[in-house]
Amino acid sequence: MASNQHRKQPSASGSAMPAASTATPTALPPSDPLQQYAGNVNDRKVPSVPPPATSKPTEAEFFAVDDRGDRKPNPVFLKDHFFKEGRLKEEQALYIINLATRILAKENNMVEVKSPVTVCGDIHGQYYDLMKLFEVGGPMNENVYLFLGDYVDRGDFGIECLLYLYSLKIWTPNRIVLLRGNHECRHLTEYFTFKKECLHKYSEKIYEACIQSFCALPVAAIVDNRFFCVHGGISPNLVTLQDLQNLNRFQEPGSQGLLCDLLWADPVTNYGHETEPSHHAPLAPGTSFIPNATRGCSYFYTFFLERNSLLSVIRGHEAQDAGYTMHRKTPKKNFPSVITIFSAPNYLDVYKNRGAVLKYANKNITIRQYNSNPHPYWLPNFMDAFTWSLPFVGAKIADMLLGVLSVCTEDELDTESDEEAKEDQAAEQIRLRREQIKHKIRAVGRMQRVFTLLRYDLLLSSLADTSLRAASELTLANPASAALPNQLAVNGTKISKGIHSFEEARKSDIANERLPEFEPRSAIFPAPSMRLSGREVDVGGMDTLIRRTLQEEKDGEDDEDMLVEKVAERLAMGRTLGAGSRPSTLKRHGTT
């Protein structure tokens, strides 16, 4: 992202460098322009950025023995290992996930927590900010950490966040409480980035184990019988807290019902001023729940506390400019009825917000804020440099091939050739030869169109035209384009330049706050976050579009297709060009 350009150092896990030669290098003449490139090719170009860890931990490193003599994953080692971008062996990652799942499954739907406690909001794969969170929150042996969910998706380090938090849960199960967020489900992790991250860094087996662990996460907590903690909010199906114990949480959340509302509900945007004029219609007195149009599911909520003798609801789920928001105070105790906590600073590297945690001890509440930490840079959808650049290079090569072949003018293409085949050649051989050449040229044209499609897809997933549209409509000027899933997360420097405030970022990202609807995964793009939402209406998505391009015939061709056809026809006829003929000018495409 734009704010972390200084961390854009190529991974050391790429191609191995050859051993340095023991021979004395030949000195270059002082005037030689190559002198500036002389030096050890093994030296890192940005020495201040440490190389990623390439080795996976041994059993001695991975395990540690606790005070009771039990061998458990070592969270101290894992913290530093993940900070260096290290990865685990698949069996080690599975061990952590499966063991944590068994521990979580034994907990109640609503966990009872005693103060002192540090309440943390959404993390969203921002591992380096999670490290800052633990610095601000204080030592774990002094208070309980209560996380409100949304550990994965949209950030680039979701699996590291999950594995580290699970290792803490295994090591000190009573000192850390992990609740379920709306992103801890199959539906959203397939739509956004977590599935793709698991496939890139580990395997689908790891992803499926994570999905199973999500179903085991408790959905709520109560602190000192005073604070009701949940990721989203309350529900019209939640009359008393006892209703939570009757809930079956071991399932994928639906688009309605109690489990959905606990993960998705929001306070009304004008909470505390419901009867005043606003862009929402005023609420009638006594109204407790209204449909949540922003999220596309669940409900907003207004009053819940008096019925259950609670002081306040503490929840996450919504980005906050200051990292937290204190909503309307209760009339009797003059205490905020709802507190929203968000712990992912500079969310998506665009929001420019602060992160915050809530510390509750000795009947006092303290809000601790913090800013974001720098983090390593990833290309969109976890691509490597070769995968990212191949469509651009391929499109240029196809342009050059057609430019070399298009050495005749439009007039020459439209006129019949004066040079016929020699009379001693069989007519059938000439016809077959011409057809072969025509097929080859058409294949080049189709290849060019395929690379163009891939190139546009990469451009749309990394850039945005901020000068032509409002921030909420940032897309490229391409007829096939539309607002893509996770747009702010995968868009880089250009989009950050077009957004100058938290409110602009929130409005730009409002579509991604809804419960997504998408087609089943395609063969080429295993995660919907890799596809364009405008093409999802086509059965099969981008892979079908490419397949159709490769198989298309002459009917329905546009002007460019007809030009390719005419070039193929002319070359097949054996047209000989004069000495003064020159290839046509290639189109220039920016590849910023």
Shape: globular
Low-confidence stretches: 1-26, 463-483, 521-540, 574-592
Instruction: From the alpha carbons, calculate the radius of gyration and give it in angstroms.
Output: 30 Å
Structural class: alpha/beta
Biggest sheet details: 6 strands, mixed
How many β-strand stretches? 16
CATH fold-type name of the largest domain = Purple Acid Phosphatase, chain A, domain 2
Strand content: 5-15%
Describe the structure.
- Keywords: Calmodulin-binding, Hydrolase, Iron, Metal-binding, Protein phosphatase, Zinc.
- The chain is α/β, with parallel strands linked by helices.
- It has helices at residues 59-62, 75-83, 90-105, 127-137, 158-171, 186-191, 194-201, 204-216, 242-245, 258-264, 385-405, 410-414, 427-460, 487-490, 493-498, 502-508, 542-551, 559-572, and strands at residues 63-65, 71-73, 110-113, 117-120, 144-147, 176-178, 220-223, 227-230, 266-267, 289-291, 299-301, 312-315, 324-326, 338-341, 355-361, 364-370.
- α3 (90-105) crosses α5 (158-171) and α13 (427-460) packs antiparallel against α18 (559-572).
- The chain is globular, with a radius of gyration of 30 Å.
- The two termini are 14 Å apart.
Task: Chart the SSEs and their pairings.
Layout: H1 59-62, E1 63-65, E2 71-73, H2 75-83, H3 90-105, E3 110-113, E4 117-120, H4 127-137, E5 144-147, H5 158-171, E6 176-178, H6 186-191, H7 194-201, H8 204-216, E7 220-223, E8 227-230, H9 242-245, H10 258-264, E9 266-267, E10 289-291, E11 299-301, E12 312-315, E13 324-326, E14 338-341, E15 355-361, E16 364-370, H11 385-405, H12 410-414, H13 427-460, H14 487-490, H15 493-498, H16 502-508, H17 542-551, H18 559-572
Parallel strand pairs: 3-7, 4-5, 5-6, 8-12, 9-11, 12-14
Antiparallel strand pairs: 1-2, 4-15, 7-8, 10-11, 13-14, 15-16
Helix pairs in contact: 2-5, 3-5, 3-8, 11-13, 13-18
